[in-house]
């Protein structure tokens, strides 16, 4: 009789433990609305699932272009990527919305990977403004009231997706106001 009660107690404890672990795992992978997106990685056959790759992380989302006066910001974005590592997801969305991106994705990739040594996530070119904007930029515009007015607009998204801050093209990746905002979202997610 005692063995039966002990076995039943052990089963109950194990059941409660696994329910707790399962609930924590589900909470850990909960994704917000800006992470319900999939896109192809630049010059790759790899599809990026935002939820799987970026869940629980703040994101810095940038519309990029290879032939723009702000293209040099790739260097600063890469420096941010190296500085913050896996704590901050930096995601580049190449776009020809302002007629300053190559139509050949191999050329886009060469500018990013060869000329600037980019190692953060770069996606295939897409539309980032207007009615044809991809789902991420449509939602960013809705949340901030600002769609990109030019290349290299930056959107800093908190880990839970509740806070989205817009920075224009002229805000360099190393600008104090951007760095302070990044520190704030990182501290909030720790």
UniProtKB/TrEMBL annotation:
Read off the Gene3D superfamilies from this record.
Glutaredoxin
> Keywords in UniProt for this one?
Oxidoreductase, Peroxidase, Signal
The GO annotation for biological process reads: cellular response to oxidative stress
Name of the protein this chain belongs to: Glutathione peroxidase
Q: Name one GO molecular function term.
A: peroxidase activity
State the family it belongs to: Belongs to the glutathione peroxidase family.
Q: Lineage in the entry?
A: Bacteria, Pseudomonadati, Pseudomonadota, Gammaproteobacteria, Arenicellales
InterPro entries per record: Glutathione_peroxidase, GPX_AS, Thioredoxin-like_sf
Active site per database record = 68
Q: Signal peptide span per the entry?
A: 1-23
The organism is Arenicella chitinivorans
